[in-house]
Amino acid sequence: MTPHEPPESALYRTLLESTRAIPWKIDWATATFAYIGPQIEDLLGWAPTSWRTVQDWADRMHPDDRDRVVNFCISQSQSGVDHEADYRALTTGGDYVWIRDVVHVVRDLQGNVVSLVGFMFDITERKQNEHQLLQLQQELQELSFRDGLTGVNNRRKFDAVYEREWQEAQRTGEPLSLLMFDVDFFKSYNDQYGHVEGDECLRRVARALQQAAHRPRDCLARYGGEEFVLLLPGADASSARAVAQRCMQEVAHAGIVHAASPLGQQLTVSVGMGTALPGTQDDSKRFLETVDRCLYRAKHAGRNRIEATA
């Protein structure tokens, strides 16, 4: 108890200072701390006497959080609205602790803001748990978008990316190209070598196609069975054909023996190719079907070739 402090005030102070929450009070007119609990030193290392003005509070905030939190708290306080803010607070050791500030705005009878009172809570553990959970969710999402056999994107991922890139092409007027691949005589390959070797063959084809799909926005996916698709945002017909030829070359360089192929002793792929300049009335599904028909033509015209839309 401080000298001349009423017993009731001493009781309230003891209660406040015995909690893990850190109480504080700021005088609105002078923007100075009227009080901050001694628990602040245990948490951050800064002595209560070092918290003089709101500038001390702002300066001890992570630079990436500072403008957002300070501007939000000022605007809410000026409007007389109670609020909460999460941010990282600097310790004397140079580390950061996640804080949740719960703020109550105190007004006089005329409605003028006279002070701010509140509590700081250490939410570091909660934030770490949230971060770990977010990472886990992202990993699970990535797994849900991966083909379990080949490791490339699956049909679900392709469908999502395709619709997004179609809409982006409609917005920007850029071309969008699509390649569809079918492993030639794959049933004969499975019959000749067995399904275990057939699975390994698909993995090798996927790796070969990945060598040609090197741009960040290119999306290679296993479309189903022995079919793959490669989406090429921003690529015109000439560029798409060059990529298709490179894909066929990479598959050839993989040197996958296919003794049962009528085309020779080496595995090959057939390619359907299309390029679109999507307008607002154009249908993404119809374009996909058009490229699929090109692949059908390639297969029925002798395979190991590229067939493109007119």
UniProtKB/TrEMBL annotation:
EC number(s) given by UniProt: 2.7.7.65
Gene Ontology, cellular component aspect: plasma membrane
Catalyzed chemical reaction(s): 2 GTP = 3',3'-c-di-GMP + 2 diphosphate
A Pfam family the protein falls into: PAS_3
First-tier enzyme category under EC: transferase
InterPro entries for the chain: Diguanylate_Cyclase, GGDEF_dom, Nucleotide_cyclase, PAC, PAS, PAS-assoc_C, PAS-like_dom_sf, PAS_fold_3
Domain GGDEF intervals: 174-310
A molecular function (GO) term: diguanylate cyclase activity
Superkingdom, taxonomy of origin: Bacteria
Listed GO biological process terms: cell adhesion involved in single-species biofilm formation; negative regulation of bacterial-type flagellum-dependent cell motility
Domain PAC: from-to ranges: 83-135
PANTHER family from the UniProt entry: DIGUANYLATE CYCLASE DGCM-RELATED (PTHR45138:SF9), REGULATORY COMPONENTS OF SENSORY TRANSDUCTION SYSTEM (PTHR45138)
Protein name per Swiss-Prot or TrEMBL: diguanylate cyclase
Species the sequence originates in: Diaphorobacter nitroreducens
